[in-house]
């Protein structure tokens, strides 16, 4: 079957586990055996200290601006990197000549970074890999320019377990400001993300909660993705009490991303929330305001990859299942953002709105419905005929609420997107 390749693109019990809470408070109660303090001008000593850290060590970086090439911590336990506040302790990587990240953390059990700004690395600002009990608090991770020269991820835990990202600010990432990938048990709360391609992305991560955040002024506000060929499957993600708004900016992902099936370069300007091939998702009590292409999109892996069935395994199912969308406030402006007309996927969203209004003059040129569903279900695998076999459950009361894009027929004479939400209303 040839399908349209168009959208290239918890800590569960962790309200605060004892391990996470301890790692946050130990900077106050003296729980670290080895305590080091440095000031500006001691960058060489600091880099050496990072490389030679022993278990149960804290490093305090006093107020001031530090200039680093890169910093690395590996294979130790119970580590705190502490500053005196994001407006006081600033780590500047703008002169970086080597290394893929500003700070790289690998295989650390019990890692906390708190109270500083990281800025202008060539690659990711902080990448935390294969670590446990990770706490990132009061951290600003920014690039001075929001363009394709920025690194991909500002705050980037990957293949981790028990992650808390709290009271952080991310700006300028050419992929995602806050990205949690291939991890288990994560919380992102009370954070802000601005002027990134994606404000925040939860990718192939299970048991995550995202709440009390403000993601605004990005290309797309919030993404929940499951992609093939990765180490684990995601799911069981809750996003609530967030403000996803005014995400209408030009997509400035690196050039190679636009040519990749899965690249974030394919995220359309004006996207509030995008759920791609992810299952067991609950999206509720959010304010999704003035994301002027699509407030919420729910799409299958088939929507972007006609060979998605061949990639199915224990870690990947291209069909989004058990999606519960309820009690969200949603509004859009009177027109698409200007940037959408220059974007290949954006043009398709414009075409969907035009097709709906051409089919039904009574819409009187209404905007794109708030929730867009590609309509590609497990029926493509089972040859079934059920109207809603994968439990997309919607409990919302807004007019102009929903469109089934009918993506299997998009671009053909048989294409007929439908605004009938009846099969998807929660029973």
Automatic annotation (TrEMBL):
Species per Swiss-Prot/TrEMBL record: Chitinophaga solisilvae
InterPro entries: Beta_helix (IPR039448), PbH1 (IPR006626), Pectin_lyas_fold (IPR012334), Pectin_lyase_fold/virulence (IPR011050), SO_2930-like_dom (IPR022442)
The organism's place on the tree of life at top rank: Bacteria
Coiled coil, from the record: none
Lineage: Bacteria, Pseudomonadati, Bacteroidota, Chitinophagia, Chitinophagales
SMART domains: PbH1 (SM00710)
Protein name: Right handed beta helix domain-containing protein
Limits of the Right handed beta helix domain: 89-225
NCBIfam families listed in its UniProt record: beta_helix_1
